[in-house]
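Need tokens for this chain, all 100 residues.
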Amino acid sequence: MLEGLIRRTNKPERLAKYQADLACPPLPRSVAYIWRIFNRLRRRKGSNGFAMSPIEWPDIDAFVRHSGMPLTPWEIGLIEDLDDLFLKTRKPDDEETETS
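Here are the structure tokens for all 100 residues:
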């Protein structure tokens, strides 16, 4: 998403912000599977009409049952933490489709 925003923006202050957001340390291989699980859950979660909905226990339960991938309590906690961070950084008026 950030790479797309970088390609589309022509405002220097936004470009600098997007580039700074994109510059981060690489994801450790040992937890990459948690990131993939989080993304699988998150991309299937919609909004309630006002804001994005959090990943809920039924979502995690359904994922575990249907994927056959049991999750430990710390893995579930990490997914919840990732989702909390994701929702905290989102704004209802986010300009993800910037064209200027």
